């Protein structure tokens, strides 16, 4: 079978849990050909992963690089585009708009058809698009603060231009489109569905829409810009849920969100992430010095600030404890990393918090601690957790996403953004050797029973096979009718 695997900002151009999952999937199903469709920043990003032989093609769709300058639309085409754009803005700004979902679907498809014939980016850079944005905001409610400015309109249109760029890519022909995230990565899958009747399989590790809401809390944009772009994300996500032939979330927590956003529960099948037990053999030895270990990328969503605050409280109870942080800092995240280091210094624990950077063997990160800690404010079904469990380490983790489903009763789950609760759990496990070892053994047993890569990959093989039959039937229908 030919599988189009759609990603955004992950595989094969960066490391992290989602990329690990993608690589496991592709390598674990050598009988299928994979066509990678990667939404990237500029299109100049180097490939971070060595691609296996069953990767038949790699298509890059840059969202933030220089625009592709195609044939500039004439005035007649721009007038037609103006009608489309105003309709799009109506679906994003008009409260109580009749048939909003159907109208959004129609206008997005027409914008795709337009983008296949004309330069969509150039059309959005025309001053008429900014004018249309200001018109859509004309009746701005006073209770929402200061009315939008022309600068807001320019920013909002620019953000939409970047977000709509996937519509200009030629639709890929495959037996199944598998989106590794909702949102913009779903756009190429939607166009393939419109043109080739390709069934859409959607896997969400975290809830894309929820993470956009979290991310926009601290964005520099003014409220009108945030509201417009979040409305766009919501409409795209809900359209993907409605279009999907199957939705395979990484945990039950995601399933609840997906049902709330319109997915038919009968089309949802939870598939947990898995690891290869051979890569994470059990370890019994512990460091000589009491140590908390963390692994991941240095990013605000991982909430290292809460972890550092908790560590400062732990140190009051366990004076010689250390905190070792394993993981790289993504480009653009240097400011956050510096803020974390400054926080540690201001709390008087800078000498005991070590930023180790990336390690070649992630197992070393788990072996380095008596207890592995996860402090995120949003997660799907984190590899760092099930990897640490497979190694045989007791874990303290925040109650987000699929974390409680992974941990069960083999670790301690605490509320997110609660340094006191996290510190109490860490102290309890550091102080009680028998409890720590019992939880570690139970965690390994649970991981080996429920969270192996063979189980996960085998399930997706079944899903692909079933959807491939649907594809064959749907593509036969037009020929049969003629």
From TrEMBL:
Source species, domain of life? Bacteria
What keywords are annotated for this sequence in UniProt? Answer: Transferase
Domain spans labelled DUF3492: 1-265
A GO MF label: glycosyltransferase activity
Pfam families attached to this UniProt entry = DUF3492, Glyco_trans_1_4
Query: Under what name is this protein listed?
Result: Glycosyltransferase involved in cell wall biosynthesis
